[in-house]
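YM 10:42: Guanylate-binding protein N-terminal domain-containing protein sequence, as discussed on the call
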Amino acid sequence: VVKPVLEELEVMRLSCSLGMLSSVNPKDFEMKMLEAQEFDDDFVLFLRKEIFGTDEKHEADGVKVMPQFGKQEAVKHELQRNDCWSDEMESNLKTEDQGVYCVAQKSDCTLLLLFGWIPDDLFCKSRLRDTATYVLRFLTCLSPDMVCCLSSEDVKLLDRAVSSMNSNNLDAWRSFSVAFHVERQEEQRDGVLCEKLGSILLPMDSSPQNLRLLKGSYPAYSVVEPAPATKCKESHIQRFDNVSEFASWLINESKQRNLRLDFGIMGPDHFCNVLLKTTGRWPEKELKDVKDMLERSLQTSLEQSMDRVQTYIEEHRATLLSYMESLFDLDVLYKGAKDEPAFVTLNKYVQEVQSDRSIWSKLGTSTQVTLNLPLRLKNQMKAIASTFRDGLANGSDKDVAESLAVFIREFTVLDTKIETDNDGFFGRVWKKVWPRDQESEFLSDKFRECMAEPLNAARQAWFQSIETALAIADGVLLKRWSEETQQSLRKSCQADEHKVISEAFDNLLLTWRGQHEGDLMTTVHPRVRQMAIFCDVEKEQWKPATDQLKIFKLVQNDNGDFSSVELGTHRLNPGAAILKAFTIKNHCIVLVTTSPKGTLVERVDFPLQRSWWGEKIGKVSFTRSFGRPVSLCDFNVDERLVAFVEEGGRVVLYRFNETFSSLEIYKRLELSLRTSLTLPVAGVLLVDGSLYATDTSGSIQSVNLKNQQTSRAVQIMPSGSCEPGSSLFAMADNMVLGFVGEPKSEDSAENSECVELFAVASEDFRTVPVNYSGNVALRSKGLCVQSFDDVVFAVNEKRKKICVCRLAVTVRSESLRIQHSKEHSVNGSKTESDGLEGDENHHWLRAFYHTDVISEPTKESCRYFFQVMMRDLRKLNKPLGGMDFARDLAFSTESNAGRDNVAALPVRSFLQELITFVPIQICRAEANSLTVMTNGKATPMDTQSQNLQAVDIARSIRFGLLSPLLESWQGRCIVITSMGKQSTGKSYLLNHLTGSSFAIAGARCTDGAWMSIRILPKNVLLVVLDFEGLGSFERTEQEDVFLSILNASISMFTIFRMEMRFDKEIDVLFARFQKGVALIKGDPSLFRGKLYMSVKDVNPNDQKGVVDEFTAKFQKLLDVNKDRNFLVDMYSGKLQINCSPPLGTKNYFQSLMGGQNSIKSLCGVETAGFRSGKTFLYSIRLVLEKIAILGWTPLDCAT
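YM 10:58: structure's back
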């Protein structure tokens, strides 16, 4: 069952690209080893304000979403047609990658092209309902529009599917029957014929005793060789609450290891001072010397400023005084040019004083006017002279001279001009036009005589104003230049101090890097997020001398010769012994090792190219450890099953997922109970759903894994001839089993240790003779054999080579085999020429689609195809709400056709659906405890121990992006959960009841507890928790109790799904609930839910009888436990029984309305549920913490 994961950082990056999450810099996502939880505070604020807030701007912002779905080549072709396929996508997207990706096109309205990228084999009939269906549902939930990309071959398959719908065999094709026929093999004898194809020489320095041929998806062999001690790097992220805590950690680390700090673009300023002071390397003396020099410089700066001001004053005084005679010379004032040096100098000085507001504002008004007196006199002198001349003609000399003197005195301190004034002498004269007479007439002796005394007084007043201005400038400039000098000196001092501190810090870093000669290095890359400090820490560690495994792949060249290619090496853990290695994919292995600590399973990926230093070192991409050592193991690569055999004969089978990235338990088997073999067994083989085992006495026996039926034991080798660990292998489509053993009759002492190849039929273990063609015989000392299809590889220890032979296997004709009929059967065998994999019901074409070339016949085929699809959908009896694909079907051939018709979705609505669609696993019950999942992944035990010591488990629990979502939600929070026995349809019911997307399957598919979130109207958040089935073989009684406690404590509405009977198993299940009643207590917000019993597969006529039976059983249960019972303590005594009709009926979906009404009623009660998402998050974290550490103290006492 597919278990999707939402890439949290990519969702945040997408939010930034859509113009939201403005508090985060998009460049932050380019940093290495970044974790999403570093942005939790920013994301909480973003969700609260921009997603769940009432901002109309974000409600109006729209985005067009156009999903693309189909096989990889078709999706790539469609993206290329839309100019959305980049070189970066070409280099990074691989065929084996799986996921949903996004391409954004910016325009007036942003267009998001979402496309599913999954391998083509996931579209086959047997796997269609898993990953492909989930990806399609994910895309359709994000947008009402869909483009499914088809190739020309898909169109041909569509036409053939439509043709088959119209054929006469339609009823047989759709029947639910399965037809078989018994087939007799042709007459021929048992036999295995080996024909030599070639050989591969081993290196002369190699030791064949250490060589092992590997089983799996491709032929390879391994060699174990010693590996010296070496250094390696281990990376992790460490968080500190403040700089002091970070500094203390660095000091402790530097005492043990060399230390290198890399601050990147952030720089060290944030940490420099604290680190120097904490380490005692603060440069006190150097900083004191800098301050002393500053004090000395400040003392001398005042004297320097005074000298500078004095020089400035003297220069200006001397310059102005040198021009004073010219400035008040009557001839110069009357006849001088405007560019006369005296006037230019004075004008420049006056403008300089005026521009300096500090000086100009302190001058009096009269002083300000007097400063430019010579300039004003020059501008008015001709008017004065003309008026004087006219005055002599109209008045007495004495009156005119006195009027002139008065005017000059007033003109000195007031910025006045000769103006029109009927009452004044000069006013009356000013109206007249000044005649252009000779200059001598104006500059007469009388005028000169009358102007002598006023000009002398004006000169004295002007000189006094200059002295006043220079005196004020003296004080202002002294203060200003002193402050500027001091400020400059202080800046220089700060630069010197920074230089001293930087040099001291550089010396500290240099000391840390090399204080332990030849020792290990720790590299720290710190970054600051608000007040906290996150560090990417890389630690060098010594790997002690041990063994390393070198893998060589066996390949056939174009000319038919065989050769070996080194894939790489993998270093073993100290003390580990290789049990088995198996090949997977085309460059990976699954390695099983044992040690005193137990058993370790690793997936090792080897690089396709050598590194620049010439080594090819395998990378461990998956690891799983088991506390108990095993003696044997085997792996079936086709079924992804691995079997571990313990000394006592106990077999535990695990199954890998499709990407070999997780390992889950599949089945347990006791050979001591199921077989008659002598323990311990010598060898095991997994083939076609059966486990074959041999013992040291030479007997073999098989167990069917599905029904655990056992074959009879047959002795195929003499007693003692089959060594422990000897390998069985399958040949000829698993009809014949091969193994290596000693010959039955061997007299020569030279050949007493030789072994050879034997074969038996897998059906009844009869001996199948092995013959050889030509000069070849698979017989030598230390013979090791492994087969792949019809080719067998055998190691010849004596000649140091690998022999390659082709096998021709035949079985005797008396054997009978049952076969699926090709006709009149849904599951009949079909050859490739039969076309479709099965009926159209399972083909992935039953979805929206378009093709690049549409013809009229194809359109008709499409219409009919969708009509059949709608007919089949209606048979499911689900409420479709008027949906009709055939009615709304449209055709287009343009690459961008339909884009304009795509409605823009609100960005906040799109992001809400994106964040809440994918559920996340929050815990898993295993090993009689509850393992808390952090971000959907199990937290390692050592990490849990550290958190436990720090009393910090609750804070460390995080549920991916759902945690910041819950933190941001300020409205009420309603929690509903599922409970019941395994495979009763709990996940299916929740999906149809709430619109969640939990995984569903016919078999067990839910592991632990999963959380999903739905956003309801009226500011209500619905949290949906799906729990795995109780009472299964995989779970112990204590694990069931833990899951039920977690379920009941936080749920407002628990849906208990069960069969139509109240038997002993249900009674035992309720008894387990009773044991968990008193484990968690002390919080009034917990255990407030209702128990909603959903009884499945009840016919309408039987509903009353079922309700009466259950009521009586519950009454009996309450009578037995009068003092305390789980119904009162865990569900507040609230019980509701719902009879659910069988699946696939209209009544089933109508019965869901009862649960929907109960949930609506619950949402309508203001006091129901948790008052905010943050409150619920705190409660569930606390409950998980209590159960995980088995801390049964009251919750109100929790720290």
